[in-house]
């Protein structure tokens, strides 16, 4: 909500614009005032809405037309003033002033101000004037928020005039209500229906007393007494009997209650509700509500917090209407009706996560999907936490974790140095799958998501992402698997993307003699030694063929200090715990990072050099003792190899 307002007064000369401004600030009637009063600024602490208010008086003279138009362009609300005792000034409201605003392209709330009401003939009824003369104008010009009759001389409705002007800016009626048809506008109805659904915690389409009280507390920070709750329901029931069901308000009753607020001039009540649920003046959810500031340092990533997992679990159970622990398409449509829609349609959802035999998303798959989303695009998760009604600050639904251990923010250390750390405390890890066309990457990934094997070959033409959980020593970890199709090389040449990769899964077809060479060529052409890696040989159910290249796969892996390739057959259901191995590597990346493993022999050599140097410094006596110790050890070794009986004797002694 804005914190300052510009109110511009326009109208014919002599209608009392300057006198109204003077009467407001002096709180008395001044007979002789300036033709145009200088801009008046009212501080927020003296206004009901706690906003800084600027009041600008204008001249209707032709010479001042340019100044008038400038002020109108800067205005937030326009007060068109006429004198009730001057018929011409009233006629010029709809003949000149309202058309002028439209000609200037000014789409602002307008307040009609009938001044000098103390001068009106006593025989003329106030209600008659409004009904016969003002209402037709308001029906024609929907920008008119309200008509206020006042008197600067009698100090009648002067402060109220400027309060209504403030209110027209801060709590406008036009976005909510169609004054001509006397109904709420569609966007207002849509927003209030969504709010109703968020407050209906048990999903029975009725707001119980407890739910109404929670709504009241959330919006107005105060509960309702039982008699007040009953009074609200009685008001609704009096005009909309079908709006109260089983002692609670249904959505029709909830909407009618807000219609009454608007029609009775309490539009600010409805606006308080809308704003509390994140809506802006255009009745869209505000950007700062959907995407609050959340900085992620380069050495950190984002995961769901325990509160985030609990929230997504709770709403899954709330919207699982049939209680089968899976979301069918209708249930997905229902929950995503609170938002712009399912955000993963381009990602082959729900194929991207765990489903039951019917293809419906299970709770396991639901949590896995949001774990993946949070890792790859935490801003999307924040937005959907807001759409789904996360209680409190939506940033509490996610958390920062160090990408390579710790809490992150470690400064400029390279990814390689940071991967030297011990076991990581993260829960979600990103795995890149690379391999030649037809090597079986997609089938392996589908098996990870518990999808059945199919012989139908469909080449991957764009990046796909799949997620599931793996149990590692009693701890659940999520692996996010990305396959890039023909874009392997573009990913591998991006340092930023490689730093995000927790495990590089290099897949080759053990029945294709050229498949492994594709991987070795990738490693020759791109700097991949600092990325943890595992080699997987697929299609082990087919005839084994020798891989062409400088070295066989097992020798190649041995040269990199890696474990031998893992042989699997997705078709045969022989996975060899490969996913558990992947999860174990992501937790201890130093165990499969070639550049770190290749450093280890150098470290041992250095240790030996230090040991020899220290030994030389001990002097002749130490050298003599060491010589005899070595001689004793060497003699025992020789003796053990030439005397079987003594070997048996030592084994018994041990």
UniProtKB/TrEMBL annotation:
Q: Where does the protein end up?
A: Mitochondrion outer membrane
Q: Does the keyword Nucleotide-binding apply?
A: yes
Query: Which EC numbers characterise this protein's activity in its record?
Result: 3.6.5.-
Query: Could you tell me the membrane topology recorded for this protein?
Result: Single-pass type IV membrane protein
Give the keywords, sorted. Calcium, GTP-binding, Hydrolase, Membrane, Metal-binding, Mitochondrion, Mitochondrion outer membrane, Nucleotide-binding, Repeat, Transmembrane, Transmembrane helix
UniProt xrefs under PROSITE patterns? MIRO (PS51423), RAB (PS51419), RAS (PS51421)
Query: Chief localization class?
Result: mitochondrion
Question: Can you provide one Gene Ontology molecular function annotated for this UniProt record?
Answer: GTP binding
Q: Where are the transmembrane segments?
A: 609-630
Q: Name one Pfam family in it.
A: EF_assoc_2
The main enzyme category here is hydrolase
Q: Keyword Metal-binding: yes or no?
A: yes
Record-annotated Miro domain positions: 2-171, 426-588
Q: Which InterPro entries match?
A: EF-hand-dom_pair (IPR011992), EF_hand_assoc_1 (IPR013566), EF_hand_assoc_2 (IPR013567), Miro (IPR021181), Miro-EF-hand_domain (IPR052266), MIRO_dom (IPR020860), P-loop_NTPase (IPR027417), Small_GTP-bd (IPR005225)
Function description = Mitochondrial GTPase involved in mitochondrial trafficking. Probably involved in control of anterograde transport of mitochondria and their subcellular distribution.
Q: Supply the NCBIfam families for this chain.
A: small_GTP (TIGR00231)
Task: Write the protein's name.
Answer: Mitochondrial Rho GTPase
Q: What gene is this protein a product of?
A: GEM1
